[in-house]
Predict the structure of Acetate kinase.
Amino acid sequence: MKILVLNCGSSSVKFDLFDWTTQKTLAKGLVERVGTINSTIHYNSANQSPLVFTKEIKDHTKAINEVFNLLVGENGCLKDLNEIYAIGHRVVHGGEKFKKSTLIDDKVISTIQKLSSLAPLHNPPNLAGILATKELLPNVPQIAIFDTAFHSTIPDYAYVYALPFEWYEKYGIRRYGFHGSSHLYVSRRAAVMLDKHIKDTNLITLHIGNGVSFSAIKSGASIDTSMGFTPLQGAVMGTRCGDIDPAIPLYMQEKLKLSPAQMMDILNKQSGLLGITGKYYDRRDIINSAKVDINNIDEYDYENLIGDIEHEHLSIFKKAEEGDPRCMLALQIEAYEIRKYLGSYFFALNGYLDAIVFTAGVGENSPLLRYMVLRKLENLGIILDKEKNLKANSSTGEMTITKDYSKVKVFVIPTDEERVFIEDTVAVLSGNYKSHVSYEYTFQKKSYKPLK
Ligand SMILES: Nc1ncnc2c1ncn2[C@@H]1O[C@H](COP(=O)(O)OP(=O)(O)O)[C@@H](O)[C@H]1O
Ligand SMILES: CC(=O)OP(=O)(O)O
Ligand SMILES: [Mg+2]
């Protein structure tokens, strides 16, 4: 039973073809820079060396055509596209309509279309992917897996904004939350690592990639999350501003005579860490330019449990030379904002916290950021293990990075959103799936071995 999953982003299409019967990935890859003459296609399949090439890919339909051609071409792993049993699509915004993964029909397509105005950067490419595959393979069932669905358990006091209430009732203005498949996957894996049932597990999951979002998870269900009505709210991100005073865009729009579309572009694409540093959004560049090295922390910082004001933030690093001040500032802002969310979610969970999970590109690969976020929290029962923190990254696989006697555990768990798309696709079609809260995923089984 071959399942294809697609994640159509604004300028990329990620795909994964998975054989459910043998539990093996047959092919996976990515079409980058869709809409340009220099699109790059990366294609990896089980028995061949990876393929990378560049060509003009005008739109998502062309990108999906390219993927299908590769799957049945000379490096392909299918004889015929009709071997594909079902297709799962990531859809970022499901609004209040979709609280679980759903079989796509014309009504679902029209609802996703209506929701596009709530997520103008994300839903239109998701929809383009659905329509393109529907045209190419009209008889293959397609399933939508919504980023927002995992957060449908958030209570009203955490999702209603302090705005005119009719805006919520008439226009659906409320917190929705995103990255649901990632928070779902890592929370279930964390319960396995704790050797607890997910329904007895309280967690704070930190998805730190280009987009950044956190989730407070009580008894396995999301009770709060940092992203909001759109994926623009929350902690500072690569190019998105996150939490700011809502008066600022209105004030600056008038001052610089900007249209709403220009302002949206600035808040989404020219702000965040890129805005602060003026040049970088990739954390690797920021860390390099800040010239702070996790291997060069003042031992005083490890030895003294209670931080003193003199010794806060970047003074903990013994610097060989002065780093770029705005990169240093960007790093401190990011770590400080994450700490503040951790504090508020710790209270939201009444202090009953089993583990904190770091995931996604930065969460999995930056021991420096993890250290800056978690230092001197011993009083809350969080005691980091220096060596384990230095070691953990995407390729080490799941790791605990706290001392054995740490009351609250901290895990690094490589996320696997595609696995959720695949399982939901199979589950919806088998009729076994009621909701993510009740469903038992294969990756919740102790015998499940995640990919490294
Ligand atoms: N070794 C590393 N140290 C710090 N950050 C890293 C490292 N490796 C990758 N990253 C960061 O991961 C980010 C991408 O994360 P990812 O989860 O792939 O994001 P997205 O899926 O939102 O594009 C990049 O901005 C990069 O800064
Ligand atoms: C919702 C969202 O921000 O997704 P991504 O991180 O993939 O852009
Ligand atoms: Mg991602």
User: Anything to note?
Assistant: Residues 92, 122, 147, 178-179, 209-211, 231 surround acetylphosphate (ligand 2) (CB under 6 Å). The CA atoms of residues 119 and 230 lie 6 Å apart. The chain has a mean pLDDT of 93. The radius of gyration is 22 Å.
